[in-house]
């Protein structure tokens, strides 16, 4: 369909519109209501959507739809998000349980796919283009919905957590390397380059323009009220960034849990114990910030063996996710599949 909103044409009992920033609390409430039923946790707060909808390279008027009941209650949400080189379009969908059995979920997903297809012409002409989404393994509704629309599970991810009963011991850091918070004003580009070098070996990684990643990271550091520069670490070998660990001191789901949002070691510094040192350094510093436990997400079939590293550090699995994908246009896969 040329106009993605045609997907809603038969929803006579609902109204559909684009979001205003003032809608963020209601959207966060919708996400949390659905998540509480699945996992007993909250997963969002209004600032998450305020920041997303106003972030660089995101068009909320084209990429988000809110669905309301006749009584004016927010009952459905759909969004797509895509960045250069426009080969992976990420989709999110939430529908209140009382509205999951009708036509609404299929309409939101059909809108999302139609909007995702509008990115195809922006991708390299010979590249495969996918629509992707992730769900909690316990979410049977979403699994059935995505399968019905031709999406299939391509990967599993896990949340792993360690309980911090006492202050962790000092890590054993490889000789010649020091770990410290990074200087956001002078070292942002070095950290992003280290991220690209580290994550090119991760399943599904697609290289994005350096300036776009820097812009997104700077935006997050400026806008996230929970951002703490004291728990953003680099491992330095002289004047080179050998690895990094970017953390959060708390999460929406659990105010007493710190989170390692992303951790990486560059290829030239692997197999020396640096990943474990960064991990344990992060545990120690998050404990000092009053975290009672620390979590992170990991690919269950990590190409670099990350799961084994986290198990060695004392972490264990608390939750599992499924990653779905659908081919929108066949072509050359630009993402990492193996190393």
Q: How would you describe the overall organization of this protein?
A:
With 339 residues, this protein is an alpha+beta fold. It folds into 2 domains: 4-150, Gcn5-related N-acetyltransferase (GNAT) (Aminopeptidase, 3-Layer(aba) Sandwich), CATH 3.40.630.30; 160-319, Gcn5-related N-acetyltransferase (GNAT) (Aminopeptidase). 29% of the residues lie in helices and 28% in strands. It has 9 helices and 12 strands. It has helices spanning 24-39, 46-54, 60-63, 104-117, 140-148, 188-199, 210-223, 274-288, 306-312; strands at residues 15-17, 64-68, 74-82, 88-95, 129-136, 152-163, 177-181, 232-237, 240-248, 257-265, 293-299, 316-329. Strands 1-2-3-4-5-12-6-11-10-9-8-7 form a 12-stranded mixed beta sheet, with helices on both faces. Strand 3 (74-82) and strand 4 (88-95) form a beta hairpin. Helix 1 (24-39) packs across helix 2 and helix 6 crosses helix 7 (210-223). The relative contact order is 0.16.
Name the descriptors.
2 domains; 12-stranded mixed sheet; 339 residues; alpha+beta; Aminopeptidase; 9 helices
How many strand elements? Answer: 12
| Low-confidence runs of at least 5 consecutive residues | none
Termini separation (Å)? 38 Å
* Global outline: globular
List the helices and strands and how they pair.
Elements lengths: L14 E3 L6 H16 L6 H9 L5 H4 E5 L5 E9 L5 E8 L8 H14 L11 E8 L3 H9 L3 E12 L13 E5 L6 H12 L10 H14 L8 E6 L2 E9 L8 E9 L8 H15 L4 E7 L6 H7 L3 E14 L10
Parallel strand pairs: 4-5, 10-11
Antiparallel strand pairs: 1-2, 2-3, 3-4, 5-12, 6-11, 6-12, 7-8, 8-9, 9-10
């Amino acid at each position: 369909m040329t106009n993605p909103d045609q997907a809603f044409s038969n929803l006579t009992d609902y109204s559909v519109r684009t979001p205003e920033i003032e809608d963020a609390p209601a959207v966060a409430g919708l996400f949390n209501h659905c998540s509480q039923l699945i996992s007993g946790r909250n997963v969002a707060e209004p600032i998450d959507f305020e920041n997303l909808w106003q972030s660089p390279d995101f068009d909320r008027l084209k990429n988000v739809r809110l669905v309301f009941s006749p009584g004016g209650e927010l009952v459905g949400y759909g969004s797509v998000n895509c960045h250069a080189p426009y080969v992976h379009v990420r989709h999110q969908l939430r529908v209140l349980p009382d509205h999951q059995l009708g036509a609404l979920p299929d309409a939101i997903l059909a809108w999302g796919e139609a909007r995702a297809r509008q990115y195809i012409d922006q991708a390299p002409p010979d590249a495969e283009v996918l629509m992707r989404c992730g769900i909690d393994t316990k979410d049977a509704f979403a699994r059935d919905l995505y399968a019905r629309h031709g999406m299939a599970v391509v990967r599993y991810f896990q949340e792993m957590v360690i309980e911090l009963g006492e202050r962790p011991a000092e890590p054993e850091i490889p000789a010649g390397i020091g770990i410290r918070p990074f200087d956001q004003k002078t070292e942002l580009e070095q950290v992003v380059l280290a991220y690209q070098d580290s994550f090119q070996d991760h399943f599904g990684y697609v290289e994005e323009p350096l300036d776009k990643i820097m812009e997104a990271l700077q935006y997050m550091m400026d806008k996230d009220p929970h951002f703490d520069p004291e728990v953003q670490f680099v491992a330095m070998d002289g004047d080179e960034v050998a690895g990094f660990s970017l953390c959060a001191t708390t999460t929406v789901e659990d105010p007493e849990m710190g989170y390692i949002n992303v951790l990486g070691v560059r290829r030239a510094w692997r197999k020396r114990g640096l990943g474990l040192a960064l991990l344990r350094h992060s545990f120690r510093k998050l404990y000092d910030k009053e975290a009672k436990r620390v979590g992170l997400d990991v690919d269950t079939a990590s190409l670099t063996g990350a799961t084994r590293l986290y198990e060695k550090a004392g972490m264990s699995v608390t939750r599992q996710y499924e990653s779905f994908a659908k081919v929108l246009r066949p072509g050359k896969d630009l993402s990492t599949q193996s190393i």
